[in-house]
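Progress report, Aim 2. The chain analyzed during this reporting quarter is listed below.
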Amino acid sequence: MSAPEERTRVAVLGAGLIGIDLADKIRCSPGLDLRLIAGRSRSSVGLARAAAMGIATSAGGIDAVVASGPYDVVFDASNATAHAAHWQALEPTGTTLIDLTPSRLGTLVVPTINGGQAAGARHINLISCGGQAAIPILAAFARHCAPTCIEVVSTGASASAGRATRLNLDEYIATTQSAIRTFTGTEAVKVLVNLSPAQPPPPFRVVMTVLAPELPSPAANRAIRVAAAQVAAYAPGFTVTSVSADEGRVTVAVEVTARGGRMPAYAGNLDIINGTALLLAEQHAAAPARRRSPACR
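Predicted structure tokens for the chain:
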């Protein structure tokens, strides 16, 4: 009898809010074997939490990932300004790098639109949490109408935005705008981000306003609902809360709540981008027909 195949070896680079939630999700994946979470500070609260979860940790950053590898998949949950150097270090190792930072490097992937491209790419960029929430809906709408202008306003709880997210807000906006242009064919795009300190913390909410010469047809409305259901397959808290149209203007609002794991419900921004990253890594794991180990309980 042949020996069981190893699960897909993965590492997480970055021990902030996104990295720790991602690590928690990976531990419950039957196809992924989390070997390391690496940060850059020995006093990191995130590394301490990871160690308490029983995960191997290092404060050596990208150097520790390279030295302890090779890995099948590395998730970069650090920051956009450091990402280019991370890819430069990992490219020779043969790993697949899934970038959760808004670096705008690598192949831009939204699973419901071009997920098939991820199978042939080793450097994958997930745009932003707002991009992953908005683009499936906007692309579905654009297939039935011709938008002339798109505005996307993302509102998240201040408590769900870590240091790297705050440092990368300019990159977040630029990368999300660029991706919306790419996936909808609309040049006039504006993205805004609000971090709300309100108590209780509000859920992650994305409101899309689209100017189009024609109001959406029933087919367009159905396409939006189908797109939402597809996203909810890997981000279960994703839901369309309203769709309204009047005089060439269409407004669609979605909310994402975090379900399961260690994150509070309002941290839907973390849940959707980590759910996307996990989906792509599990598809990578399934490609060579690996034998699965029991899921964590």
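The chain has two domains: 8-126+274-286, 129-266. Confidence is low (pLDDT under 50) at residues 289-297. These observations will guide the mutagenesis work planned for the next reporting period.
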